[in-house]
Amino acid sequence: MTALTTDRRAQTRWSGRLLPSLGILLVTGGLVLLTWYTWLVLTPDTAPYRYQQVTTGNASEYPELELDTWPDLTISQYDIHVEGTEQPVAQAWFGQRANQPQVLLNWKNQTREPLLALDQKASELSALAAAIDKHASRDALLLGWWDTSRQLALLTGRDVLFHTPLHEPLIIPPEWQPHEQAIRAYENQQAGTPADPQEQELFMRFAQSLVNPPANGLDDLRQLAGTRDTYLIVHVSDLYKLGLMYPDKFGIAYKHYRMTGNLHGMISHLKTEMRTRGYYTYTLQSLSDELIRAFFLIDEASYDTLLAKLLPFTSQPSPVERTSPRLIYQQGGYWVYHLTAKAPAHNTLQSGKDSNETTDSTVSVDQVQ
Questions:
Q1: Is the confidence at residue 18, as pLDDT, over 50?
Q2: Rounded to an integer, what distance in angstroms lies between the CA atom of residue 339 and that of residue 210?
Q3: Residue at 297 is within a domain
Q4: Which of 211, 103, 208 is nearest to 160 (CA)?
Q5: Single pTM value for the model
Q6: 68 lies in some domain
Q7: Does a structural domain hold residue 294?
Q8: Per the record, which residues fall in region Disordered (predicted)?
């Protein structure tokens, strides 16, 4: 069973247990082998993994990505290998148009813990991009995490604040920390473009807004957006990334659960885990038909942040009830809000579902009982 991750505030609460100093325990499990240590010591300025291209083709050749709407995209699939291991630790799919830099569109982790990027269902991204392409004005600004921004800029052609790979946070195991700069340089090389320092500053303002109290955070985001028609896009996996960036302000833990025929049994086990650990609330992300990731907020202070208020947590008010910003789209792990609007209030994205309906990818557990 995958070990729980948690932030450093939990150290005081559970002083008798081994917890990380960074705030989220990245248990590497079977990922780290003895050969890694030798190789890392001998090559301190080299990224400890390599992208190996497997195939390339048009979008129709990769039906699992559900990108047929974008036939002009070139898709490249890579295996990610670590020295001393035969099997890839992850798989990646990049999309590219003409001579533009390639953008990571999908990631499949083969290890027990997050590595470099977070898994999610490919169908969620394609559905969101199709809705934006159909309903959002051509001059709309899409405001989201830097990786989400790059994906949607590629698929929709809408403007975003973050066009370059910013690698914040850098999701790596502790053994790779001495190679942080080498990893950042290698990721820039793989993407075909370096991180932009000005975008880096803007992104830190964006991330800080999400960890601020809701009213202050929204004011900060509106200042970033200016007067443009702006859609704020958040994903449940942003919880994990924000926790890595601000472990002292945002306490997040996670655990994987296998889907079985006994759904109520899994829910009962999850609630028992929450009570035992003293967590405040939780939400779920569907990774596949067989696997669910539960995110736990460890205290009320973490819930009293903008990002937490924008996402569904059990036994807490639904984001659907918010009046500002107004929820206009929800599909899987994505929740989209009209942050600043030039258009009439009735102009919304259409998900093909009632906006009050929670999908299987981010479902309040109490709602499925």
A1: no
A2: 13
A3: yes
A4: 103
A5: 0.81
A6: no
A7: yes
A8: 347-369
